[in-house]
Amino acid sequence: MSDAAIKKVCVIGAGTMGAGIAAQVANAGVPVLLLDIVRDEANRNAVAEDAVKRLLKTDPAPFMSKAAAKLVETGNIDDHLGKVAECDWIIEAIVERLDLKQSLYAKIEQHRRDGTAVSSNTSTIPLAQLTEGRSEGFKRDFLITHFFNPPRYMRLLEIVAGPESDAALVDKVAGFADRSLGKSVVRTKDTPGFIANRLGVFWIQAAINAAFDLGVTIEEADAIGGKPMGVPKTGIFGLVDLIGIDLMPHLQKSLTGTLAKDDPYQAIARTQQLIEKMIADGYTGRKGKGGFYRLNREAGKRKE
Ligand code: NAI
Fold this sequence. Notes:
Number of helices: 15
Organism: Sphingomonas naphthae
Structural class: alpha/beta
Mean pLDDT: 92
Domain 3-hydroxyacyl-CoA dehydrogenase C-terminal: 193-294
Domain 3-hydroxyacyl-CoA dehydrogenase NAD binding: 8-191
CATH class of the largest domain: Alpha Beta
Protein name: 3-hydroxyacyl-CoA dehydrogenase NAD-binding domain-containing protein
Bound molecules: 1,4-dihydronicotinamide adenine dinucleotide
Low-confidence stretches: none
CATH architecture of the largest domain: 3-Layer(aba) Sandwich
């Protein structure tokens, strides 16, 4: 099937991932509808509009070209969800909460055209849970497309299809991701965390525990767990700052809730208190005022 079959894409959730995915689609010359919630009554589209402004300013290189930005239409889900009917692929990239994702799908179901692909960018939630309660038609058109952060530079795309997913539609999305977005597509089973996060979250969690148990600094931990172990540039704590500290409790809860009680991950998922305090204090990572690295710098200054 030709990529021309995907003429317009909708991305819902203009945060770290949704904005980055929208930029990649627009950079490929395909029009995008980017929607988010209403946070400011005076400017109901502000969340998506601000995301586009940020995409044009990223350093060292803008995530999106000025020409591509003209292909992005911004809006909010309350006023503009009906426009999903114009789109051939709807990508959900809202926060990692099953209840919010499920209630959004119920709304999308009322507006989308039959045969339109709907996918979730979930990191960990099994497809079977996401589509619970939805119609047969919705389940047929639904899949998981898990992009990695930042979507501009990370080539991997995990695709998860359910038993009811339409194989031709899944192939159409995979083909578009491969040819138009330059992704290396890996098809994975519908298991908690799929492949990358089943390993990745385990490994991040184990590294955080080890650093705190052994009393090593985050720089020391990243020096060992960074380049020498094949993690480019950021190291593990730098990666968590990039992913977003606020995502961690959702990833942890999703995995502890879906994995078997005797799974080794259950025993190591034990940094909730520290992470929840960081979030409450605004240390959400690069998307906020900073994360582990900023906290560490501030602690260092207090000791001086
Ligand atoms: P984020 O917190 O940066 O952005 C989420 C966006 O969704 C926010 O702008 C928020 O206002 C919006 N939103 C929340 N509820 C909404 C609703 N009902 N309708 C429309 N918009 C809504 O989150 P992030 O990090 O971009 O994560 C999004 C998804 O991508 C999650 O499922 C996450 O697990 C997944 N993911 C995240 C990665 C990361 O490195 N941050 C990597 C790969 C996947």
